[in-house]
Amino acid sequence: MGSPLVFVPVFGKLDLTRRALRALDAHTPNDVAFLVVDDCGPDRVSEEWLEEVLQPLRVRELVMNEENLGFVRSANVAFARRSGHDVVVVNSDVVVFAGWLGHLVAAAGGGVASVTALSNNGSVATVPEPGAYPSVESLSVLAAQADTARPAPFEIPVGVGHCLYLSNQALEDVGGFDEAFSPGYGEEVDWSIRARRRGLRHLAAPAVIVWHDAGASFGTRRTLRRWHELKLALRYPREFVAMRVPRWGRFEGGA
After folding, report:
1. Which of 45, 113, 249, 254 is the most exposed place for a label (fewest CB within 10 A)?
2. Per DSSP, what are the bridge partners of residue 115?
3. Are the beta carbons of 68 and 42 closer than 8 angstroms?
4. Mean pLDDT computed over 232-240
5. Do strands 112-119 and 154-155 pair parallel, antiparallel, or not at all (unpaired)?
6. What is the set of domains in the chain, with CATH numbers?
């Protein structure tokens, strides 16, 4: 149903958010709506701030959480406002480049629950030799090459949340993220496994490469991550073990 909705969750760190939104604005058609959800962080987004950051023609909506809900619940707020559209989750520590959205849309289709962009730090959706790209500028060269070459999508076990396209069909069938994984980490793995059990697939789109300052948008909480990985292992022992075999690369329960 029309263009996807681009959802950007924000928790403070407005310098990163400004960088993310300006890249999105520059490389996304103006009729694609942005939904910015401010999760009551130490620095708040405002309508005036968005007016300074985004082009006047950009279709946008700002949701201001009155309390900190965490990423999982904020994402569910966004999903509830999608009005039948597919949704692209783009973390505020991500930088997109030319062609990003078109390649994600092209990879999506019947039976596909999610499409993940490759990045310099994206778990199973990481570019080869990521250490060779230490900056946004260096990765932009690789992204431009991928945009031109348009390599074919390939299957991955789960979607990865740094830049994740979710189909409306899958959100209808599977529902939103499980709030048992609040405030975050592991929620997209749980969602992906539930989608796979319904016969849906997850793809990586190597034609889309984005920069990702992993952990910068929401911080690093190692204890929480380990607890949520244990929760996944207990819920899905067969799938969890399968995701750790070499052909899938290194598993991480969260973006």
Report:
1. 249
2. 165, 203
3. no
4. 92
5. unpaired
6. 5-248 (3.90.550.10)
76, pLDDT greater than 80: yes
Question: What percent of the chain clears pLDDT 90, i.e. is strictly above it?
Answer: 86
- Over the chain, what HEC string results? CCCCEEEEEECCCHHHHHHHHHHHHHCCCCCCCEEEEECCCCCCCCHHHHHHHCCCCCCEEEEECCCCCHHHHHHHHHHHCCCCCCEEEECCCEECCCCHHHHHHHHCCCCEEEEEEEECCCHHHECCCHHHCCCHHHHHHHHHHHHHHCCCCEECCCCCCCEEEECHHHHHHHCCCCHHHCCCCCHHHHHHHHHHCCCCEEEEEEEEEEEECCCCCCCCCHHHHHHHHHHHHHHCHHHHHHCCCHHHCCCCCCC
Contact call for residues 170 and 183 (beta carbons, < 8 A): no
Judged against a pLDDT cut of 60, whether residue 253 lies above it is answered with no
| Residue (of 157, 216, 213, 219) closest to 183 by Cα position | 219
Amino acid identity for residue 106 in this structure? A
Taking residues 221-226, what's their average pLDDT? 83
